[in-house]
Amino acid sequence: MKLRKVLIALMLLSVWGGSMIFADATVQKVRVIVNGSELDENGVLQDGKTYLPLRQIANTLQALTTWDENTKKVTVYKPNVHMFLFKASDKEVTFGNVDKNNRVSFMVFAQIDNLLTSVSAVKISIFDPFGNEKIIQQQAVNVTKDNFWFRTSDFKYFFDSAGKYSVRFFMKANDNDDWGQVSEKIITVQ
């Protein structure tokens, strides 16, 4: 009786192990590279179809995603967002380079079009070369049209380290959504 139970257990383990090996052989991990950068999460190739991590791809492409729980539908929106950085002292001079240890007063002007969803809030932040965020301006908006312009107040910032600083534009489709980055400008500090 004991030998019979051991044999049955061994047969079950063999079948289970064989099916796990077969399942692993039919599902392959796929490296995903977008614009030269590899994503943290891998895609999966199964039965000739590739399944990709949608939120990570949307974030990399600077697009918004919305999830509708009722219909189980995710929608990706990629608005065109063009940002311009103007020195506060001369509203007609754009800039992108700054000398180290300088305090610059500037404002951000953004032109948004091809916006195919409503937006509840916008945020513009600057990130230093170490990834630290300083919010330039954040506010609730009620945008339901496909284009709008946005201008920040004048903002003073001290560029104390050499490197790349990024000014990023974020949107929220709904108040309960996460911020989605939709544009980025780089300021080089030497």
Q: Radius of gyration, rounded? A: 25 Å
By helix and strand content, what is the structural category? Answer: alpha+beta
In CATH, the topology of the largest domain is named Immunoglobulin-like
Q: Could you say what the CATH architecture of the largest domain is?
A: Sandwich
Helix content: 10-25%
Q: Summarize the biggest pleated sheet.
A: 5 strands, antiparallel
Tell me the count of domains.
2
Uncertain residue ranges: none
Structure commentary:
This is Copper amine oxidase-like protein. Pfam families: Cu_amine_oxidN1. Residues 34-113 form the Copper amine oxidase-like N-terminal domain. This protein has 190 residues and is α+β, with helices and mostly antiparallel strands. The chain folds into 2 domains: 2-61, no CATH class; 76-189, Immunoglobulin-like (Sandwich), CATH 2.60.40.3880. The protein has 2 helices and 17 strands. The strands form 5 sheets. Strands 8, 9, 11, 14 and 15 form a 5-stranded antiparallel β-sheet that branches. A 5-stranded mixed β-sheet has the order 10-17-16-12-13, with no helix packed on it. The radius of gyration is 25 Å and the shape is elongated. The model has no long low-confidence stretch (mean pLDDT 86).
